[in-house]
Every structure is written in structure tokens, then in C-alpha cells.
Design goal:
The complex is a heterodimer of chains A (about 160) and B (about 170). With about 160 residues, chain A is α/β, with parallel strands linked by helices. Helix content of chain A is about 25%, strand content about 20%. Chain A has a single domain, classed as Glutaredoxin, CATH 3.40.30.10. Chain A contains three helices and nine strands; from the N terminus they run H-E-E-E-E-H-E-E-E-E-E-H. In chain A, the strands form three sheets. Chain A has a five-stranded mixed sheet with strand order 6-5-4-8-9, with no helix packed on it. The radius of gyration of chain A is 17 Å and the shape is globular. Chain B has about 170 residues and is of the alpha+beta class. Chain B folds into two domains: about 50 residues; about 110 residues, Sandwich (Immunoglobulin-like), CATH 2.60.40. In chain B, the strands form two sheets. Chain B has a four-stranded mixed sheet with strand order 4-1-7-8. Chain B has a four-stranded antiparallel sheet with strand order 3-2-5-6. Chains A and B meet through strand 2 and strand 3 of A and strand 3 and helix 2 of B.
């Protein structure tokens, strides 16, 4: 009995360690993940500029979906914005091509974490604060989210960290 | 009349000013004591967590990096939990400019240990390349510092992974 309780506790601890629940106002914990092409990316190295993170629920040959995200954001923000796709590759997934870096999460990466709710879109302020978080029906709200991103960038009214 | 008033004010305030300066000197002393105590506690913590007999550290350096640029490293000692790191472009740039990366502080008991390194990256042509190394190192009573060096070998036009310790 004691053994199984300990095992359950350990499993819960391990699973909660990698899946992160964040809300607007939280500082984004650092992570580094390898990219499909090019160098691994570390979020803390982006401090000083806004970042868009698109957490994908999955990506089995999801080129079309990625292209739609890229086109919508590009149309709304022609000046450009550092944007990354993040996904958990599954065995047998078809490789997708994207202009933005495709960051791969894996459980054995000690320097990474995975966002608890996917798909999700996260806007990170230049101070490293989760400024906006879209988690509801994001797949069907690309245009609306892109417009929000544009007005967020225009306003530059970055959210300040929460104080206790 | 005014002069008299000023003299009286000076006489009254002189002891207060002296007390104030004594107080600020005490505050400075106190701050210094706290800093010293903090340093001592840090040292004590270091000694307790990682005494000299078991203290070891891993470092990585790149000699020019013309033939190899690292993307990830995995180091296992005696086959135990690996030390892993992913390199960003900025970090590799720092390494090529001569930076030495403190990879990890570890605890190692005195005796012989096997260190296995797997370093993945790209060569000068942008092709995937893997450098591996397995060596035995001796840990004595003194701290052990292990440096993993990626060396450019001009004769073979490729990189090699070397290990040095002191």
C-alpha cells in the first residue's frame, strides 16, 4: 500500500514537473529546445523583445496549419515578430515545414517544460512576462488572434509582473 | 541676538549630530558583518554539500570551432544520470570566442571513474557530426576539474574531442 502511494506520488511529481500551468502576469520559466532546422532556442535569450509562442497540440504533417498561422501573423504584423512553434513529436509523424523555428519538446530534455493546455498561443513581453494567453478554440481564431497580436505590439503596454 | 540664537542651536545640535554619525557607522559595521556572515554561510553550505574529497566539475571549451560547432552534449559518469545541455547560437559564438562553459558541478567519490561524452553538432559543411569519448579518470582527495576540449585538427581537417583534468 505504502509502495503504491509512493509510486503514485512520484508519477504525479514527474508528470507535473514537465507540464507547466501559466497565466498572464507570470514570468515565463526558461527553456531551451532543439529546432527542426538550425540552432536550439532558449527563451531567456529573447529578453528585450516580444515573442509569440504557438504551442501545438500535435503536428503530423501539419504544414497547412503552420502556413495559416504564419500568413495570418505576417499579414497583421508585417514588421515581423520573433515567433516559434512548439510541439511534441510522436513516432510516425510526418515532418512539417515551417518558416518559423519548430521547437521539439521531449520528456528527457531536462532544460525544457511543456505548457499544460494545447493548442495555445502565448505572447511574452520583452520583460519575459506571459502577457496574453489564448487557449480557447485557438485553431479557429487565427485571424482574431493575429489582430490582437498586432494591437498588443502597437500599444506596447506590457503587463507588469504580479507582486505578492 | 541672532548670533546668540545660532550659538545655542549649535550647542544643542552638536551631540545629536555626533550620535547620528555614530549610528550610521554602526549600521555600516552591521552591514559588513551581515555580508561576512553570508559569505561564511555560503562557504559552509558549499563545504557540506560538496566537500573537497567529492568535489568535481565539468567544463567545455572550443578551440576555434572551425571544424565543429556543438548543438548538444550528454555526459555520463559511471553510466549514471547524464548531464545534458543544448547549445544556442549565442552560446556557440561565445565558445568560439574563447569562453569556457561550466557544464556542471558534480559529486564524485575518490577512486577511478568512467566518463562517457556524446557531443552532437555540425561540421564546417553544415553536416551533422558526432564526437564521442570514453575515458577513465582518477579522483583523489583533491577537487577534480575536467575540461572537455573540442580541438581543430588541421591535418585531418576535422575536430576531435579531448579530455584534460587537473
Amino acid at each position: 500500500m505504502g509502495y503504491s502511494v509512493r509510486s503514485l506520488f512520484l508519477i504525479a511529481l514527474l508528470s507535473s514537473a514537465s507540464a507547466m500551468a501559466l497565466k498572464p502576469g507570470d514570468s515565463i520559466p526558461d527553456f531551451v529546445m532543439p529546432a527542426d532546422k538550425g540552432w536550439p532556442k532558449r527563451i531567456s535569450e529573447q529578453l528585450g523583445e516580444p515573442v509569440l509562442l504557438v504551442w501545438l497540440a500535435g503536428c503530423d504533417g501539419c504544414d497547412k496549419d503552420l502556413a495559416m498561422w504564419q500568413d495570418e501573423i505576417h499579414s497583421a504584423v508585417p514588421g515581423g515578430l520573433t515567433s516559434w512553434f512548439l510541439y511534441r513529436p510522436e513516432q510516425g509523424d510526418k515532418t512539417a515545414n515551417a518558416k518559423w523555428p519548430m521547437l521539439k519538446y521531449s520528456d528527457d530534455n531536462q532544460q525544457a517544460w511543456w505548457f499544460k493546455e494545447t493548442p495555445a498561443v502565448m505572447l511574452v513581453s520583452p520583460d519575459g512576462i506571459v502577457d496574453h494567453l489564448f487557449i480557447k478554440d485557438v485553431e479557429y481564431r487565427k485571424k482574431e488572434i493575429a489582430a490582437e497580436v498586432a494591437s498588443w505590439l502597437d500599444a506596447k503596454a506590457w503587463l507588469q509582473p504580479e507582486t505578492e | 541676538m541672532k548670533t546668540w540664537l545660532m550659538v545655542i542651536a549649535l550647542i544643542i545640535s552638536a551631540p545629536v549630530l555626533a550620535e547620528e554619525s555614530q549610528l550610521s557607522a554602526n549600521v555600516v559595521d552591521l552591514k559588513q558583518s551581515v555580508l561576512q556572515l553570508n559569505r561564511d554561510l555560503y562557504q559552509l553550505e558549499e563545504d557540506l554539500l560538496s566537500p573537497e574529497t567529492t568535489r568535481a566539475a565539468l567544463y567545455l571549451s572550443l578551440n576555434y570551432g572551425g571544424f565543429f560547432q556543438p548543438m548538444s552534449i550528454s555526459v555520463t559518469i559511471d553510466g549514471k544520470q547524464p548531464v545534458q545541455h543544448l547549445y544556442t547560437e549565442r552560446q556557440v559564438k561565445a565558445l568560439t570566442q574563447g569562453a569556457i562553459q561550466p557544464l556542471q558541478n558534480i559529486n564524485l567519490g575518490p577512486g577511478e571513474h568512467t566518463i562517457a561524452v556524446q557531443l552532437k553538432g555540425v561540421d564546417q559543411n553544415g553536416e551533422d557530426r558526432e564526437l564521442t569519448l570514453e575515458e577513465r579518470v582518477e579522483k583523489n582527495e583533491q577537487p577534480l576539474y575536467i575540461e572537455l576540449k573540442v580541438n581543430d585538427n588541421k591535418e585531418t581537417q576535422s575536430a576531435e574531442l579531448l579530455l584534460s583534468h587537473w
